[in-house]
Amino acid sequence: DAMVIQNPRYQVTQFGKPVTLSCSQTLNHNVMYWYQQKSSQAPKLLFHYYDKDFNNEADTPDNFQSRRPNTSFCFLDIRSPGLGDAAMYLCATSRVIANEKLFFGSGTQLSVL
Amino acid sequence: AQTVTQSQPEMSVQEAETVTLSCTYDTSESDYYLFWYKQPPSRQMILVIRQEAYKQQNATENRFSVNFQKAAKSFSLKISDSQLGDAAMYFCAYRSGGATNKLIFGTGTLLAVQP
Question: Which residues in chain B have their CB less than 8 angstroms from residue A90's CB?
């Protein structure tokens, strides 16, 4: 049973056209994360939510925003996608326990034309 | 800032043989956790094994074990009796002991398993 669900699996957008990626979870976890993974690179944390508290990484561009309307859902908004934003976007969740693992979704592969 | 380094971009192993993937990290913290994640072609990250820094005993999960050398800041993964299904990208990851649970990943090692 899928526990962290990302839709869509593949997303194509045009340069400068806003796009939203979605993530939902059935685990009731407090923390939700968004990672960006470019080809052949390590995943890079963009931001995370601890319940309703938003935590942005210092080097995350302003072009990236996030919303968490409730425990189950979290959205990644890219206001004006550039070619350099083409990547796999991974959503993950965890409980707030120090050695707890992260549960990852299958990711959304974003292409920017 | 903490960093994680994986110096082997690619590795290859024969089926049923043993392979070791290297990972080093840099931190000034005393309380932290280390992980190995596997990312198969499906791209879904799967936890392989975890190690608490305060534990001296090396973690083991079936065919997977780690060699944790805290003083050397080294955290290698050994895969015994390699199987075709082990072929994947392997990421070493670090997390501070605080409540933020932020994972910092290394650049990954692509493991190929030869039949």
Answer: 43, 45
Q: Does A2 contact B at CB distance below 8 Å?
A: no
- Residue A100 to residue B45, Cβ atoms within 8 A: no
Confidence of residue B44 (pLDDT cuts 50, 70, 90): confident
Q: Which residues of chain A have pLDDT under 50?
A: none
From start to end of B1-115, where are the E strands? Answer: 3-5, 10-14, 19-21, 24-26, 32-39, 46-52, 60-61, 64-69, 74-79, 88-96, 103-105, 109-114
DSSP, res B6: -
Q: Contact, B101 vs A31, CB < 8 A?
A: yes
**What's the gap between Cα A111 and its chain centre?**
15
The answer to whether B109 touches B8, Cβ cutoff 8 Å, is yes
pLDDT at A1: 63
Query: Is the distance from CB of B64 to CB of B36 less than 8 angstroms?
Result: yes
Distance from CA of A105 to the nearest CA of B (A): 6
